[in-house]
Task: inverse folding
């Protein structure tokens, strides 16, 4: 990423000015990205490894963040779902290019229970609930028409305003970070990189060379 610094404060990435907890610091940066109108600020690149050891990546949406970590939802039979079943580790990257910032978190991934996943499923638009049933995510289909026919059949099966049950093949995941790196662009590629690394029950903050 070859960009120039956009933050006028050269001390903005001083370790002494960062919050002691990476998730609190992440919340601050996310709020700034949202406040500046960054497109899709909760979009994150999710990288996984397949059972065959092949790296794979795609963009998903962050749906919650807390002291526990980063939460997202997906079809458990999708490629990423199968990857996480084989290797429950992942990396997520938040690429806030317009701000010259990036956050990268690495760690283990825990599959959330059906009960813990259902409140978010219920909050989704009805069309998205139908879509979760209709899509055999990552599987080959013959045409767009096949998908649309499946949607129409499901809409007849569960007509509005009745409830749509949550699929047992769909749910949430929690990435529990072991490291979280905050990257801010600098002139001449002298970027600021500060990484939080778990140390027992706390965190160490380390400055990395750009």
Result:
């Amino acid at each position: 990423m070859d960009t120039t610094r956009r933050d006028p404060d050269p001390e903005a990435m001083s370790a002494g000015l960062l919050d002691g907890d990476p998730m609190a610091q992440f919340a601050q940066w996310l709020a700034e990205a949202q406040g500046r109108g960054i497109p899709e600020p909760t979009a994150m690149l999710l990288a996984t490894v397949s059972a065959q050891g092949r790296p794979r990546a795609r963009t998903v949406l962050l749906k919650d963040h807390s002291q526990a970590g980063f939460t997202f939802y997906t079809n458990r039979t999708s490629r990423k779902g199968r990857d996480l079943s084989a290797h429950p580790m992942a990396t997520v990257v938040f690429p806030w290019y317009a701000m010259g910032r990036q956050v990268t978190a690495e760690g283990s991934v825990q599959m959330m229970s059906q009960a813990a996943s259902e409140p978010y499923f219920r909050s989704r638009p009805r069309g998205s609930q139908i879509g979760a049933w209709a899509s055999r995510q990552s599987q080959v289909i013959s045409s767009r028409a096949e998908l649309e026919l499946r949607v129409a059949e499901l809409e007849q099966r569960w007509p509005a305003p009745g409830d749509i049950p949550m699929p047992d093949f769909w749910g949430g995941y929690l990435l529990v970070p072991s490291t979280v790196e905050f990257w801010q662009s600098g002139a001449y590629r002298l970027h600021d990189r500060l990484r939080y690394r778990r140390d027992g029950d706390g965190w160490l903050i380390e400055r990395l060379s750009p």
